[in-house]
Specification:
Blueprint lengths: L2 E3 L11 E5 L2 E3 L4 H13 L4 E4 L3 H9 L1 H9 L2 E2 L4 H9 L10 H14 L3 E6 L8 H12 L4 E6 L9 H14 L3 E5 L4 H9 L7 E4 L3 H6 L7 H6 L2 H8 L1 H30 L1
Parallel strand pairs: 4-5, 4-9, 6-7, 6-8, 8-9
Antiparallel strand pairs: 1-2, 2-3
Helix pairs in contact: 1-5, 2-3, 2-12, 4-12, 11-12
Length: 272
């Protein structure tokens, strides 16, 4: 897990070095440092994107160059998955902590509220008359007075491939003019959507946050804190949605995590 320096093509607000874990670069920052970096960029008028690699995203990046490019292109890449943090420690290049996207939506919102910034939410899971995206926006505004929720959109499946639906979203998005945008559509769809929306709001910061909007709204339950801290949050999600997640977690992600840790331990032994 060697470190590598920035290149002339890197955006100026990207960290000077990243730690390579399983073939992708991760910025060695804490949650607090990530928030500070975003706020400093916003104050200076620079937009950007946060990507939050976990084992699932790492597996996708190993299968596809296009997926890996989505991770590498972000101004800030933080380790959402605990196995990535464990691997960094085994290899002797430790990351300071796990930085989960589901935590960042809260800490970024708190910092944004202190500055009177505007936030928009895109994604979530519609459930009949329930509107989790709008409810999540209301919860964030209530939790953090000063935060301005200027958009909460949960478009139908395929909206990004339908020209009229996409244009309608872009029009609403442009009129809202958000500073922060949480996009919860799952990797890599949310990253593709972010790439297109950044042209509409180049000064905004975007966070691909997966199921975080549903967590905020209470549509899905997040694992208890002790499971989040111990790196077993995936077990809680597997138990909550076994049909949807069993194949992904057990047949795809688990072998990748085991190989990641074994490679990291081997690298540390070779370096000794």
């Amino acid at each position: 897990m060697e470190r590598y320096g920035s290149t002339p093509n890197h955006c100026p607000n990207r960290l000077a070095s990243r730690i390579r874990i399983g073939g992708i670069g991760i910025d060695p920052v804490s949650e607090r440092e990530a928030v500070e970096r975003v706020m400093a960029a916003l104050e200076s008028g620079r937009g950007g994107q946060i990507v939050t690699p976990n084992v699932d995203i790492l597996a996708a990046a190993r299968r596809s160059r296009a997926a890996r490019a989505l991770v590498e292109a972000a101004e800030l890449a933080v380790a959402d998955g605990a196995p990535l943090v464990w691997a960094s420690k085994l290899a002797g290049t430790p990351l300071p902590q796990r930085v989960a996207g589901s935590d960042l939506v809260w800490s970024l919102s708190e910092a944004a509220a202190e500055r009177g910034l505007k936030v928009a939410l895109l994604g979530g899971t519609p459930d009949g008359a329930a509107r989790p995206t709008e409810h999540a926006a209301e919860i964030l505004e209530a939790r953090y007075p000063g935060l301005k929720a200027v958009g909460a959109w949960c478009p139908p499946m395929g909206f990004d491939r339908d020209e009229s639906q996409w244009r309608a979203l872009v029009d609403r998005f442009g009129a809202a003019d958000p500073d922060l945008v949480y996009v919860g559509l799952g990797f890599p769809k949310q990253e593709h959507v972010i790439a297109r929306l950044r042209a509409v709001a180049p000064g905004a910061w975007f966070l691909g946050c997966g199921a975080s909007i549903d967590f905020i709204a209470g549509y899905r339950r997040r694992a208890p804190k002790w499971m989040q801290r111990s790196g077993t949050e995936w077990l809680f999600r597997l138990a909550s949605e076994p049909r949807r997640l069993a194949r992904r977690y057990l047949l795809t992600d688990l072998p990748v995590a085991v190989r990641l840790l074994a490679d990291a331990a081997g690298q540390r032994r070779r370096a000794m």
